[in-house]
Design a protein that fits this description.
Low-confidence stretches of chain A: none
Number of strands of chain A: 19
Oligomer: heterotrimer
Chains: A alpha/beta (521), B alpha+beta (58), C alpha+beta (421)
Strand order of the largest sheet of chain A: 15-16-14-17-18-19
Number of domains of chain B: 1
Structural class of chain B: alpha+beta
Radius of gyration of chain A: 24 Å
Helix content of chain B: 40-55%
Helix content of chain A: 25-40%
Order of helices and strands of chain B: HEHEH
Chain lengths: 521, 58, 421
C-alpha cells in the first residue's frame, strides 16, 4: 500500500488531541496505519519509521498538520479519512469552549484579562521556556506542565521567579491545587489546614487523597516539578513554597514530598524545617529518616503515612508510623489465603503496571528489598528491565515514562497503553497484577472500566490453561472526583479485583501474596 | 504579587497548551482564558532571531 | 529599540487617524495623474512585465490599447503590448489605485481625492459595473463602447455634479456605510446608496439632458460597487503619507497584480516585498471551481490595509454569504485582526464589536510573531481574460512578503547603527 498525505497549513492542535485523533482514525475499517501530527522533526521521523512518509513531507513546517495514511482503497478513501478527522474534531470541541474568545498569544490574553494571575503552560517543551519567561516578566505565577525543558532554562526561570516572589511550578509539574483550584492532574479534595509542597505528581495526589479520606483538607498544594531538588536547581521552588506555607495563616501543618534530594538541597530544607513554627512532615520517599528527625521534622514510611501523620499532628495527636492495613489482620490473612489459593505452583511473578510514576516508585521501594524487581525505573542499574532474565522475574513498570509515551498520550489520559501491556506482559507465570487507577481532573473519564476489561480478558486467557491470577488495585480518588469513586471501585470488584484503600496497602498486600506464592500456596 | 498574596486572591488563569485543562477550569467555573497557541513566529529560527534583535530595549 | 519603533509607529498611526480623504472632483488621467503619459499604462499591484502578466491583466491592457486607439483588434493589441512601445507601472507609484486589473490609461476619467490633513491626493477610475468589463480583463467591443460612454457622458456629468455639490467628506461616508452593513471592499451597497443620495440634487442641477441624467442615475444605481472606487482612493490617500515615517513597521500598501502579491512598509519606503499571489479558496459561482480561478489580483486590499474591508468583516455579516462561513466567522476574523494591528480607528466604529474601532495599523512584527495574516475579502476573476468574476472568498497575503520585509527592516536598522550587537 502506498501512503497518502493530506496537509492542513497553519492548523495547530495540541499534542493530546492529535494523538487521540490518530488512534480514532486507526480504528476506521480499511486503514492500515495512520498518523496525525504537526510537521515537527520528531513527527516526521515517526512517520518515516511507520513508512508513512510521502514527497509532500518536504513542504511541511511546524505549523502544518499532516494526516498520513496507508489504507485499502477498496474499503476507504483519503476523503473519508479526512471526513472522520473533521467529525472527531467537531465532536470533541468542548461545548462552549470553542465559542469563547481565544487570544493567540499570552500578551493578547493578558490584554483580554488584565487581572490574570496564573499561567498554566503545557506547550511543547522547546517553546515552553520563552512563554514562561514572558509570563514571569509580566508578573504572573506559572504552572509549567511541559517537560523537555532544559535544566539551564529551569534554573534561570526559577531564579527569576524567586526574585519576584512568583511561583514557577515545573517543568514536568503535573499536580497543584492553588486556592482550592485543582490544576492539571489533581483530585477534588476539601479545603483545610494542611499545606503540601510536592515534587512528585501522583505522590502529591496520593497524599491529598488520603488526607481527604481521613476527614481533613488542603490549604495549598504547590508543585515544584520533578527536577527541583537536584543539585543544579537547588530546591528553589520547594524552598519558596515551604516558606510561603510557613507564612500562610491558613496552613497549620506542612508536608514536603519528593524523591530523596541532593544532599546540599536537603540541608537547606532541614535548616528551614528546624526553625519552622509549624509542624513539618517530610516524605523524601525512601529518604534519610534520621536526618529528617534531626531537623525537627517528622519522617514518613509511605505517602499514606505522610497523610496520617499530618492529620494526627493537626489534631494534636502523636504521629505514629502507619504500617498496617485498614482492615483487621484477620481479614487480611483471609484475603491473602483466598487469593493465593487461586495460583498454581508455577505462578510466582509480579506484574505491576503503574500509570502514576511516584506510585510506582513507592511500590518499588516498599517491595525492593524483599523481591528483586526489574523495572524501567529500577532501584539499581542492574535491575533495568532490559536485563530481565530469560527465565523471567518480577516486573514493575512506570507506564508514564518517556519510553512508553512516545507518540502516545500518557496512560492516565488514555488507558489503551496499559491495556496493551496487560496483553503482552501478563502470562501463566504471573501471580499478582498490581495496578493504580487514578481519578480526578486530567485523568481519563473511566479508567476503572479499562482495567476491568483488561482483567476480564486476561482471566479468560488464563482459564484456558486452567489458571487464574490475583489482581490488586488502588483507586487514587475521592468521593468528589467526577469519575465516581464508589462506581470505580465497584467496577473493579466486579472482576474479583482486590481494591485497597491506599497505594502502600495495595503494595503491602501484594507483598504478602507474593510471599505466600513463593512458598507454594 | 507574591505567593502569599496570590493565596488571598481569586485565581484568574491563562491556559496555554492542552485544551482539556481549560475545559476543566471552565467546568469548575474558574475564571480562565485559553490561548489559541501556536509556536511564536511559526517556530522559524530566522524570524525569531530577527524579532529578538528588535526586542532588546534601547 | 522598543521605544524607537513604538514612537515611529505612533507617528504613523497619528497620520492614519488624522487622515481626511475628501472627494474634490473628477479629471482625466493624462491631465491629473502625476507622471502619466500616452505611452504609460498603470496597473494594480507591484511592478510586473507583460510577459509575466496573468490573463485578466493582459485582457485589460489589450482593452486599454484599443480604447486609446492604438490598435483595432485584440491580436493587434496583444502585439502592441509585447512590442515595448508601452511602459507599465503600478498605480501605486502614481498616487493611484485600481480594482482587479486596475488598468489606467490616459483618456480614462478618474475620481480625485484629496487628504485634507496632509494635502496629498489619490486617483481612481470610475467603476464600470459588473459583467464583461475591462477591470476583469474583458476586451470586446461592448467594453470599449461602455468606456466611451463613461468618458463622454458619465464623466463630464459627474464632474459638473461635484463642482456644484462641493467637496464630499469620504471619511464620514465610509464610517456611515460601515454601520450599515458594508465593509466597503466587497460590499458597497450602503456606500453607493449614500453617495447617490448625497449627489442626487446636484446631478439634477447639472446642465445635461434629462436623458443623460437618467442614464447616469440608472448606471450608478445598477452598480453596487460604485462606491468601491471611492473607498479605495480614500484609503490610499489616508495611508500614503505613512510611507515617509522612518523606522515605522507599519504596512502602508498591500496590492496584487494577478501574479504577485506585494506589500510596502513605512520604514522601507517605496520598496516592494513580493511573493506569488495565492489562489483564493472561496465560494465559486455555479459552473466554476478553483481550477478556473486567477490568482489574487487588485489594489482593492488598500481597504484592508487601512483596517476596513475584510478587517471590518464583523460589521458586514451579509458578506459571509459570498465568502462562505457564518456571521460568527466574520466576528472572529475581525477579532483576529486586532492581534496584528496597532490601534483602533477613532472614526470607523464597528457596531457588532461593541463599537470598537476598526483594527488599524498592520505591524509586520505582529504578523510574524503571531503568524496571523491580514484577512482580505475579495472577488475571484476567471484566469482567462474577459470572462469576469467567478466567485468570492477570503485570501491572505503570503507570509513571505512580511518575512522579507522584516529581514530588510532589521538590516536597515543595522546599517544605521541602531542595533546593539
Amino acid at each position: 500500500m502506498t501512503p497518502h498525505t493530506i496537509i492542513k497549513r497553519n492548523a495547530y492542535y495540541d499534542s493530546v488531541t492529535l494523538m487521540l485523533l490518530s488512534r480514532e482514525l486507526q480504528k476506521l475499517e480499511g486503514v492500515q496505519d495512520v498518523l496525525v501530527g504537526m510537521g515537527t522533526d520528531l513527527n516526521l521521523e515517526l512517520a518515516r519509521d511507520l513508512d508513512l512518509a510521502t514527497d509532500d513531507f518536504e513542504t511541511l513546517t511546524v505549523n502544518d498538520l499532516f494526516i498520513a495514511a496507508k489504507y485499502d482503497d477498496t474499503q476507504i478513501s483519503m476523503q473519508a479519512i479526512e471526513a472522520a478527522f473533521n467529525e472527531y474534531l467537531n465532536k470533541s470541541a468542548e461545548s462552549g469552549v470553542d465559542d469563547d474568545y481565544q487570544p493567540p498569544t499570552l500578551r493578547a490574553a493578558i490584554q483580554n484579562m488584565p487581572d490574570a494571575n496564573l499561567v498554566v503552560v503545557s506547550v511543547p517543551g522547546q517553546y515552553a521556556a520563552a512563554e514562561v519567561e514572558e509570563a514571569l516578566d509580566a508578573g504572573l505565577h506559572v504552572m509549567l506542565f511541559s517537560d523537555n525543558v532544559a535544566v539551564e532554562d529551569e534554573l534561570r526561570l526559577k531564579q527569576k521567579a524567586v526574585g519576584k516572589r512568583l511561583l514557577m511550578m515545573g517543568p514536568d509539574c503535573g499536580t497543584a491545587i492553588i486556592n482550592g483550584v485543582p490544576l492539571c492532574f489533581a483530585n477534588a479534595v476539601r479545603r483545610g489546614k494542611i499545606g503540601v509542597v510536592g515534587a512528585s505528581g501522583t505522590g502529591t495526589q496520593e497524599v491529598t487523597v488520603q488526607i481527604h479520606r481521613l476527614g481533613e483538607g488542603l490549604s495549598q498544594v504547590i508543585g515544584t516539578g520533578g527536577r527541583d531538588l537536584k543539585e543544579e536547581i537547588g530546591g528553589l521552588m520547594m524552598i519558596q513554597g515551604f516558606e510561603a506555607l510557613i507564612a500562610d495563616p491558613e496552613t497549620d501543618v506542612i508536608i514536603l514530598i519528593s524523591k530523596p534530594p541532593a544532599l546540599s538541597v536537603a540541608e537547606k530544607i532541614y535548616a528551614i524545617a528546624n526553625t519552622s513554627p509549624k509542624p513539618v512532615v517530610i516524605d523524601f520517599i525512601g529518604g534519610d529518616r534520621a536526618a529528617i528527625e534531626a531537623a525537627g521534622a517528622i519522617a514518613c514510611v509511605s505517602l499514606e503515612d505522610a497523610a496520617h501523620k499530618a492529620v494526627d499532628v493537626l489534631r494534636g495527636k502523636q504521629a505514629k508510623d502507619f504500617t498496617e492495613f485498614s482492615l483487621p489482620e484477620t481479614q487480611i490473612d483471609q484475603i491473602v489465603a483466598t487469593e493465593a489459593a487461586k495460583l498454581k505452583a508455577d505462578q510466582t511473578e509480579l506484574r505491576a503496571l503503574f500509570t502514576g510514576g511516584t506510585l510506582a516508585d513507592e511500590a518499588m521501594k516498599l517491595l525492593g528489598d524483599r523481591h528483586p524487581i526489574y523495572s524501567n525505573i529500577p532501584l539499581t542499574a542492574d535491575m533495568a528491565i532490559e536485563n530481565l532474565p530469560a527465565g523471567g522475574g518480577h516486573i514493575c513498570l512506570d507506564l508514564g515514562e518517556d519510553q512508553f509515551t512516545r507518540g502516545r498520550p500518557h496512560p492516565m489520559i488514555d488507558p489503551q497503553t496499559r491495556s496493551d501491556f496487560f496483553e503482552s506482559q501478563v502470562d501463566g507465570h504471573t501471580a499478582v497484577v498490581l495496578v493504580d487507577v487514578v481519578l480526578g481532573f486530567g485523568a481519563h473519564e473511566d479508567p476503572a472500566s479499562a482495567v476491568a476489561e483488561s482483567v476480564r480478558g486476561i482471566r479468560q486467557k488464563l482459564s484456558v490453561e486452567g489458571k487464574d491470577l490475583v489482581v490488586i488495585a488502588y483507586v487514587c480518588g475521592t468521593d468528589l472526583d467526577s469519575q465516581g469513586f464508589e462506581r470505580s471501585v465497584a467496577k473493579l470488584e466486579a472482576e474479583s479485583i482486590i481494591v485497597m484503600p491506599s497505594n502502600a496497602q495495595a503494595v503491602r498486600l501484594t507483598d504478602r501474596v507474593l510471599q505466600r506464592a513463593a512458598k507454594g500456596a | 504579587m507574591s505567593v502569599n498574596d496570590l493565596f488571598k486572591k481569586e485565581l484568574k488563569i491563562v491556559n496555554m497548551g492542552l485544551k482539556s485543562f481549560y475545559a476543566d477550569f471552565k467546568s469548575q467555573n474558574v475564571t480562565a482564558v485559553h490561548v489559541n497557541w501556536k509556536p511564536k513566529a511559526g517556530g522559524k529560527k530566522k524570524m525569531l532571531d530577527l524579532l529578538g534583535r528588535l526586542n532588546k530595549s534601547n | 529599540m522598543q521605544n524607537l519603533i513604538d514612537n515611529a509607529n505612533k507617528q504613523a498611526l497619528e497620520i492614519i487617524q488624522n487622515g481626511q480623504p475628501t472627494l474634490i472632483g473628477l479629471g482625466v488621467a493624462g491631465e491629473v495623474i502625476p507622471g502619466m503619459a500616452n505611452d504609460l499604462f498603470l496597473h494594480a499591484g507591484p511592478p510586473v512585465t507583460w510577459e509575466k502578466m496573468s490573463g485578466p491583466l493582459r485582457g485589460a491592457v489589450m482593452a486599454g490599447i484599443m480604447y486609446e486607439g492604438l490598435a483595432s483588434t485584440p491580436e493587434e493589441a496583444a502585439d502592441y503590448a509585447a512590442s515595448g512601445k508601452l511602459r507599465f507601472d503600478p498605480c501605486h507609484h502614481h498616487d493611484a489605485v485600481g480594482p482587479m486589473a486596475g488598468v489606467v490609461t490616459s483618456k480614462m476619467p478618474v475620481w480625485i481625492i484629496e487628504n485634507k490633513a496632509y494635502g496629498n491626493r489619490a486617483y481612481c477610475t470610475l467603476n464600470e459595473g459588473l459583467g464583461k468589463v475591462l477591470r476583469m480583463g474583458a476586451y470586446g467591443p461592448e467594453v470599449i463602447e461602455h468606456l466611451n460612454w463613461m468618458e463622454t457622458v458619465l464623466y463630464p456629468l459627474l464632474k459638473e455634479t461635484i463642482e456644484i455639490h462641493g467637496p464630499l467628506d469620504l471619511k464620514v461616508m465610509i464610517a456611515q456605510a460601515l454601520q450599515m452593513g458594508d465593509e466597503v471592499h466587497n460590499r458597497n451597497k450602503a456606500g453607493t446608496s449614500l453617495l447617490i443620495r448625497e449627489i442626487a440634487p446636484s446631478i439634477v442641477k447639472t446642465s445635461f439632458s434629462d436623458e443623460d441624467k437618467i442614464a447616469v442615475f440608472e448606471f450608478l444605481n445598477s452598480n453596487d460597487h460604485t462606491f468601491l472606487n471611492l473607498s479605495m482612493p480614500a484609503a490610499k490617500a489616508t495611508l500614503e503619507p505613512v510611507g515617509k515615517v522612518k523606522h515605522s513597521t507599519i504596512v502602508y500598501t498591500m496590492a496584487r497584480n494577478g501574479t504577485e502579491f506585494g506589500i510596502r512598509v513605512a520604514a522601507l519606503g517605496e520598496r516592494w516585498f513580493t511573493a506569488p499571489a495565492e489562489i483564493i479558496d472561496g465560494l465559486y459561482f455555479p459552473g466554476f471551481s478553483m481550477d478556473d480561478a486567477n490568482p489574487d489580483i487588485g489594489d482593492s486590499c488598500i481597504t484592508e490595509t487601512l483596517g476596513i474591508g475584510g478587517f471590518s468583516m464583523a460589521t458586514a455579516p451579509a458578506i459571509v454569504q459570498f465568502v462562505g462561513g457564518t456571521p460568527k466567522d466574520a466576528v472572529r476574523y475581525t477579532t483576529d485582526m486586532y492581534e496584528i494591528t496597532t490601534e483602533e480607528s477613532q472614526i470607523y466604529k464597528l457596531p457588532p464589536m461593541n463599537f470598537r474601532g476598526a483594527p488599524t495599523g498592520i505591524d509586520i512584527r505582529k504578523v510574524i510573531e503571531t503568524q496571523i495574516l491580514p484577512v482580505i475579502n475579495t472577488g475571484i476573476a476567471h484566469k482567462e481574460p474577459g470572462i469576469g468574476q467567478v466567485g468570492a472568498g477570503i485570501v491572505h497575503p503570503p507570509m513571505a512578503c512580511f518575512e522579507q520585509a522584516l529581514e530588510a527592516y532589521v538590516n536597515l536598522l543595522e546599517d544605521e547603527g541602531l542595533l546593539e550587537e
